[in-house]
Design brief:
Layout: H1 32-48, E1 59-60, E2 66-67, H2 68-83, H3 89-105, E3 117-118, E4 121-122, E5 125-126, E6 139-140, H4 141-157, H5 163-178, E7 191-192, E8 194-196, E9 200-201, E10 205-206, H6 213-221, H7 231-235, E11 243-246, E12 249-252, H8 262-266, H9 275-280, H10 284-301, E13 318-319, E14 325-329, E15 332-336, E16 340-341, H11 357-361, H12 368-380, E17 385-386, E18 389-390, E19 394-395, E20 408-410, E21 413-415, E22 419-420, H13 421-435, H14 438-444, H15 447-455
Antiparallel strand pairs: 1-22, 2-5, 3-4, 6-8, 7-10, 8-9, 11-12, 13-16, 14-15, 17-18, 19-21, 20-21
Length: about 475
């Protein structure tokens, strides 16, 4: 059974940061390389998505199913493309409308086959042509949430008095309103990670700091099937055991950087705080900035002696890898992994020398100077930058023939052959949020997100504005 992707559990005008503590990132002038990276990453979504139904692939060029989470990032991409002049509003509008209509019309139900989802939730992976459940995967609460984030963003951005834009707004609201969040609450007040017709509910629940924040905010803000008032306190109950100092940074820890990025794609956490963050005198934006600094410090120290670490080359998150095998390299036995949630923790065991450009690039809003330098350094390595920007991962330590699951040797080490939608998406979105605040500004107007934040106990900052 495939688990949902919580892969670790067991400006043109500069947008100034508004923070509660010093050190919040401030956007620097955008370099030509950042512009090129953003444009290429946009093209990934525009050119690999199925134009007949809007479904986005999990990965490319390897054959794959649609990832419902990657589809959410694809929906984000289309307004960004319009704002930057890469695609017309008419073309983007048609693509978004095709996508939302297709999702809305897909059959739902409890049966194991012939459906795309149940109770408003979608299966993690869908067939790229039919849109029906693929690979006996799970009904995924987090991946559905990421899709809804993209849909609601489009619903907010397409705001003109135009029949097709009105239909986009209607469908985005309908898809969100159809989700029965209470169905996923099996051990109140927590939301389950997922469900399958064959095995029922996944035992694990969403609890503790990670990318799951957006699940609870949308579930609390639902106009039709909201979860209970105690849900956010239940989600935060384990926070104290994960607050501490790691590589010189005191913060709420989570080893892979995607957990510090995903919810920030849609939610502007600058200056707004829940009860826990108020008690620490920071906000979630500052917390993510510190996580980025900790990863940079870890790479500079390079305690496990991996090749290529340090300087401006860093970034651990969930990503592809060369495969599961061990090799003796220069007198040391090295263990490698395939797709895995790599990250920085006290043990150092979540690191096999594989670096993911998305870990650094999607952190640009948190630490723009550090990230810009990292992007430049990684591109200079050779073999990792292509038509659609950065490939998913590379491993300089693995510099000789080995039983690769996928990938090739290039630029002095192992390099992936695929781009992954869920790693491309945060790069594109967070560059735009850093540059112009586009997604943040749009989503701050969404009444459901505001309601979810306020029910979770967030106060201050833009939430105090009328």
């Amino acid at each position: 059974m495939m688990l949902p992707r919580r892969r670790f559990l067991a400006a043109s005008a500069a947008l100034p940061a508004v923070g509660l503590v010093s050190g919040h990132a401030r956007a620097a002038p955008q370099s030509p390389l950042i512009s090129d990276l953003q444009r290429r990453t946009f093209r990934f979504f525009w050119e690999t998505t199925n134009p007949s139904n809007g479904l986005a692939p999990d990965r490319w060029p390897s054959p794959s199913t649609c990832s419902i989470a990657a589809l959410g990032f694809a929906l984000n991409a289309y307004p960004i493309g319009v704002e930057n002049g890469w695609v017309s509003r008419e073309a983007a509008r048609a693509r978004v409308l095709t996508t939302l209509k297709f999702l809305w019309d897909l059959p739902q139900g409890p049966q194991p086959e012939g459906v795309a989802g149940h109770k408003g939730f979608f299966y993690h992976f869908l067939d790229m042509k039919t849109g029906l459940r693929a690979m006996r995967c799970e009904l995924s609460t987090v991946d559905t949430t990421l899709m809804l984030g993209g849909a609601l963003f489009c619903g907010g951005w397409f705001d003109r008095d135009h029949l097709e834009e009105a239909e986009i707004r209607r469908l985005a609201e309908a898809l969100y309103a159809r989700v029965d969040w209470t169905f996923a609450v099996r051990q109140a007040p927590l939301v389950s990670m997922g469900w399958t017709p064959e095995h029922g509910w996944i035992k694990a629940n969403w609890q503790g700091y990670c990318e799951g924040m957006l699940i609870y905010l949308l579930a609390l803000g639902s106009p039709t099937h909201p979860i209970g008032d105690d849900a956010w306190s239940g989600w935060c109950a384990t926070y104290p055991q994960y607050w501490g100092e790691l590589w010189g940074q005191e913060h709420l820890t989570f080893p892979p950087l995607f957990g510090h990025q995903y919810s920030h794609v849609w939610v502007d956490f600058r200056g707004v705080q829940d009860a826990f963050m108020r008690s620490k005198g920071v906000d979630y934006f500052e917390n993510s900035r510190r996580a980025v600094l900790a990863q940079k410090a870890y790479a500079a120290a390079n305690p496990r002696g991996f090749k290529g670490y340090g300087g401006d080359v860093w970034g651990l998150t969930a990503c592809d890898g060369p495969g599961s095998f061990a090799l003796d390299l220069n007198g040391a036995k090295r263990r490698f992994d395939g797709y895995f949630a790599r990250g920085v923790d006290a043990t150092g065991q979540l690191d096999d020398g594989t670096l993911a450009p998305t870990a650094a690039a999607a952190s640009i809003a948190f630490a723009p100077e550090l990230v810009t330098a990292a992007i430049e350094a990684m591109k200079a390595k050779g073999g990792v930058y292509g038509d659609y920007g950065f490939i998913d991962a590379f491993n300089p330590t693995l510099d000789r023939p080995a039983p690769f699951k996928s990938g090739r040797l290039a630029g002095g080490g192992w390099v992936d052959i695929d781009y992954l939608g869920i790693d491309q998406g945060p790069i594109l979105a967070m560059i735009e949020n850093w540059r112009t605040g586009l997604i943040w500004r749009t989503m701050r107007k969404n009444p459901h997100l505001r309601r979810g934040l306020m029910r979770a106990g967030f106060t201050g900052g833009w939430l105090a504005e009328t």
